[in-house]
Amino acid sequence: MKLICIGRNYAAHIDELKNERPTEPVVFIKPDSAILPKEQDFYIPEFSKDVHYEVEVLVKIKKVGKHIAKEFAHKYYDEIGLGIDFTARDLQSQLKAKGLPWEKAKGFDGAAVVGKWKPKSMYESVDNLNFSLKKNGETVQEGNTSLMLWKIDELIAHVSTYFMLKKGDILFTGTPAGVGKVDPNDYLSGMLEGEQFFEIMVK
């Protein structure tokens, strides 16, 4: 399985990082080894002094698909989740400045938090989901999927043009504004529609 991630999918986040607004989804891949094992703390890697949290709504692909039309994309997933795309921001900035790929800043071990899954049928619309991240009990990120530049079905259609989607693949749909640094002993918890989907300690 693979983790397919979308960057720059919320306008306010684009602005806070002073990035250029894309004309199509920004796509990158994390290896499956990036998934933080359940019940395990997140350890800040020694090669970074500026790791950022990025809370994101997740989608689990349920069957194989290629060149999926947007109007059929809803048939390829039944479950919605919440997670974190951890980013070594200092390393990413160095690599971007040199025009180099930045997988090392995004795909390191433990860089993908995957919380619990819920049936999408629980929600009236996947395009109107409230979600947030708390750091030490204080809300630091809030978002709603209605604010995505590209909605979930559009993302699936776009990504499947380039990568065959397989059962178990996970789509990270992008993060809203409010990203920030984590420090040792931080406690992070993610909420989707008022329900906690994950909690982790930072070491």
Our measurement of the CA-to-CA distance between the termini, rounded to an integer number of angstroms, reads: 27 Å
Residues in helices, as a percent range: 10-25%
What would the principal axes of the Cα set say about the shape?
globular
Cα-atom radius of gyration: 16 Å
Portion in strands = 25-35%
Structural class: alpha+beta
Give the rounded overall mean pLDDT: 96
Low-pLDDT regions = none
Query: What is the helix/strand order?
Result: EHEEEEEHHEEEHEEEE
Sheet with most strands:
6 strands, mixed
Task: Count the E strands.
Answer: 13
Q: Determine the number of helices (DSSP H or I, runs of at least 4 residues).
A: 4
Order of strands across the biggest sheet?
Answer: 2-1-10-4-5-7
Short summary:
By secondary structure, the chain is α+β, with helices and mostly antiparallel strands.
Secondary-structure topology with pairs:
Elements: E1 3-7, H1 11-16, E2 26-30, E3 51-53, E4 55-61, E5 77-85, E6 87-88, H2 89-97, H3 103-106, E7 112-119, E8 130-135, E9 138-144, H4 152-162, E10 170-172, E11 180-181, E12 187-192, E13 195-201
